[in-house]
Amino acid sequence: MQLNALIDHTILKQDARRSDIERLCEEARTYRFATVCVNSCWTSLAAALVAGWNVGVTTVVGFPLGACSTLAKAAETAQAVADGATEIDMVINVGRLKDGDDEYCTRDIAAVVEAAGDAAVKVILECCLLTDEEIVRACECSVAGGAAFVKTSTGFSTGGATVHDVELMRKTVGDRCKVKAAGGMHTRAEAEAMVAAGADRLGTSASIAIVEG
User: Fold this and answer.
1) Is 98 annotated in the active site?
2) Which of 73, 122, 178, 180 is catalytic?
3) Is 89 in the active site?
4) Which parts of the chain register pLDDT below 70?
5) Is 151 considered catalytic here?
6) What is the DSSP string of 80-96?
7) In 3-state terms, what secondary structure has residue 27?
8) pLDDT computed for residue 213 by the predictor
9) Which of 19, 170, 174, 175 has the most CB atoms less than 10 A away?
10) CA-CA-CA-CA dihedral for 95, 99, 102, 108, to nearest 10
């Protein structure tokens, strides 16, 4: 299985420095990963570094809590796209979802999708904080809001991707959008299990260890 083209090569650490972003982009070019995934302050640098290499730039929005205002998420998205982001990974408003306010969550997602223009939007559900019923509702909100992907995790909460969550997300969205598994994958076997469960994309900082087996 060729995993490199499925991987968003990721560094989202709070203390990431310019040298870390430069190394990330060099590795992405070498291994031909799908995208590099960075915090928004690094978008323009990453875009410049991968230009011409058929590597995209994923920027996270409302990260990692998802609890900022819709206006803030949309503004961060618009700036990221202006800076060269080709994909946006936004965090759903978990508290509003748990309150049953699916309408708010759908509007929140739709605003980011609109601000993203042609850039694909992935909605991070943070499955470790959700029941199965809430995961299903979050997937439905994401589809209704126009998202291109649903994504399992930020990697900053109490757990990462699980096969169960990926299978549930895949079953829920069907072919209406794609699924990204992220958080907690460190080995090729773990990554392949996520793909077998239905993941179309993988988000990891252990990309090289995974593709080299």
Assistant:
1) no
2) 180
3) yes
4) none
5) yes
6) HHHTT-SEEEEEP-HHH
7) helix
8) 85
9) 170
10) -30
Per the rule left: phi > 0, alpha: psi between -120 and 50, beta: everything else, 84 is left
Residue 197 and residue 166 in contact, taking contact as beta carbons nearer than 8 Å: yes
Residue 1: per-residue pLDDT:
78
Nearest CA among 109, 129, 98, 115 for reference residue 177: 109
Contacts of 54 (CB under 8 A, 6+ apart): 32
Residue 174 in 3-state DSSP?
coil
1.10.3720.10, 3.90.1640.10, 3.20.20.70, 3.30.450.20: CATH of 4-212: 3.20.20.70
List the catalytic residue out of 8, 73, 83, 89. 89
Taking CB atoms within 8 Å and a gap of at least 24, the contacts of 96-100 are 97/130, 97/134, 97/137, 97/138, 97/141, 98/129, 98/130, 98/134
Quick one: DSSP state of residue 160?
-
Distances (CA, A) of 75 to 2, 97, 116: 36, 22, 10
Domain extents in the chain: 4-212
